[in-house]
TrEMBL record:
The active site is at 12 (tele-phosphohistidine intermediate), 86 (proton donor/acceptor). Keywords: Hydrolase. PANTHER family: FRUCTOSE-2,6-BISPHOSPHATASE TIGAR. Substrate binds at residues 11-18, 61. This is Phosphoglycerate mutase. It comes from Ephemerocybe angulata. GO terms for cellular component: cytosol. CDD domains: HP_PGM_like. Pfam families: His_Phos_1. Signal peptide: none annotated. Transmembrane segments: none annotated. One of its GO terms (biological process) is regulation of pentose-phosphate shunt. GO terms for molecular function: fructose-2,6-bisphosphate 2-phosphatase activity.
Amino acid sequence: MPVKLRVFIVRHGETAANKDGTIQGQLDTELNEEGLRQARLLAEKMKETPIHIAYSSDLIRAKKTAEIVLEHDPGVVLHERKELRERFMGTLEGTRVPGIARQAIMRSDKTIETTEQLGRRALAWWDEVIKHVEKNKNTSKAGGEGLELEVADANSLESAAQTTNILVTSHGGTISTFFNAGLAQGRLELGPGVVFTRCWNTSVSIVEVDEKRRGRVTQYADVSHLAKEQVRVTNADEVEIDARGVEEQDVPSAVTVSWRAEPIDSRPHSRNT
């Protein structure tokens, strides 16, 4: 089945809160120097991939990551979506709470967005994305007339009518929850050899969608653009799924994992499974 959409789902670059283990949730934090550098490395890798449509969380760290990537596609409008925000962490936002205590608080604190609520809003955004399948299909049948896709320039029309590339920048907890919810509901399927691991800063996951709106995950959390660079494992906003630590095979090839030593180990030890 021909691929109609190719969706590049990117986690934002590193922030100071990522570095020190602070729970951000929907706090509007900015990229630090490392995060800006990561975004530039990603932009360099993706510069040969024309982007036709771009979505981002409306939080600064995600928007800035998208803006850097889109410097190679200056005609593309960046659409901000609240649905792509990180999980709302309520009273935990801005705190540094060790993983076990954090999970206990989340079971009883009603100010915190539940996994089910987060999954529903992430999938609501996905429903908006896959509407472009019909637009793409109708455009292809019409020979390019009446194109509704927001492409950068006239030179993009032919490729857009075949496969539309969509950039999405969001957050680690939202991305991992989206993929889990999509698989659970049968909206997504894993391609051959694809496994879930940590959702690293500026990692790229790819979903290919056919004309029947079926999504296949062909890549998850790739950070090959950070080869031989350090990537930070800790993500205090990502508090589920199980209690196993990162195993050697979870670490991307040629990437050094940077653990932050602390008196109290606040690493979340979560895997996106």
